[in-house]
Amino acid sequence: MLANRHYMLDAYGCFPEQSNNIMVVNDLLVQLTNDLGMKPIMPPFLVPFYYCADPDDVGVSAFCICANGSHVTIHTFPHRACYFVDILTDQFFSESDVTAAIQNQIYASTINTNVVDRRVFEGIAGNIDTNNDFGPHYMITVENVDVTFEQIFSWLDTIAPRINMQAICRPYVIFDKTSSPEYISGFLVVAQSHIAFHYSIKERTANIDIFSCSFLENGAVEDLLKDSFGEQTQTNLFARGSKHTLRCELGSRQARIKRNEAWRNNIRD
């Protein structure tokens, strides 16, 4: 059965030095998967991203895909002194112990956590404030669907511009094992967030996550899913985090803007 226990952590007031250190982020991924017995099927995948349109959005995005359609993700924003962690697993665990383990690696003065059962569908979970919330996290289940490895790659490879997101790498898609696979999992890292796709071959069921740092037009995601998979989709929508209070000096921000614009101009040339 696909993993359905989803832990979310939104943290603020963190130490920029820790959240900007790829070794710290890597070690945290390894520690969490080991402590929770999640059986990684790949090494940690880390994407330092330092050329955002807004230089205050730079940071590290990382994920590790595990057995049974599960994963751990981390997104850090050093200049905004915040980070986000997601753990999708079929293992039972102590929420307080997991939070303490994360806190020991990347300290934060304010932490909000939530654990949800993805098999329970409530539509919009809680109040959504597009002016003050950080962004939406869509948790989607698609039942009675047949998809292949190649179709998952193609879907992830083309979805970002359709919902106003910026992919910063090509999709990563993997079988859970080399012989007689039972699951196919795929990840796309977008600008400081992610899109995940876990598919159970036997159950013909997919769990999909679309985590964005900006709110989309009403119905945009639902319309895309309906176009892709028909009517057999169920979606929960969660608001993540809150708008940031910057911790950078104006002068350093101006220097980053100048440097990032020069880099992007070179790429376009």
Quick summary:
Helix content is 27%, strand content 33%.
Helix content: 25-40%
| Helix-strand string | EHHEEEEHEEEHEEEEHEH
Detail the poorly predicted runs. Answer: none
Tell me the fraction of residues in β-strands, as a range: 25-35%
**Major sheet characteristics:** 7 strands, mixed
From the helix content, strand content and strand pairing, which structural class follows? alpha+beta
- In DSSP terms (H or I, runs of 4 or more residues), the helix count works out at 6
What is the approximate shape?
Answer: globular
The spatial strand order of the largest sheet comes to 7-13-8-12-11-10-9
Taking Cα atoms only, what radius of gyration do you get, to the nearest Å?
18 Å
Average pLDDT score: 88
Give the strand tally. 13
Q: How many angstroms does the end-to-end distance come to?
A: 48 Å
Assembly state (oligomeric): single chain
Write the layout of secondary structure elements.
Elements: E1 5-12, H1 16-19, H2 22-35, E2 45-49, E3 59-66, E4 70-77, E5 82-89, H3 95-105, E6 110-117, E7 124-125, E8 135-142, H4 149-162, E9 172-175, E10 183-190, E11 193-200, E12 205-211, H5 220-229, E13 233-240, H6 250-268
Parallel strand pairs: 7-13
Antiparallel strand pairs: 1-5, 1-6, 2-3, 3-4, 4-5, 8-12, 8-13, 9-10, 10-11, 11-12
Key features of this structure:
269 residues, alpha+beta, six-stranded antiparallel β-sheet
Walk me through the structure.
The protein has helices spanning 16-19, 22-35, 95-105, 149-162, 220-229, 250-268, and strands at residues 5-12, 45-49, 59-66, 70-77, 82-89, 110-117, 124-125, 135-142, 172-175, 183-190, 193-200, 205-211, 233-240. The chain is built from six helices and 13 strands.
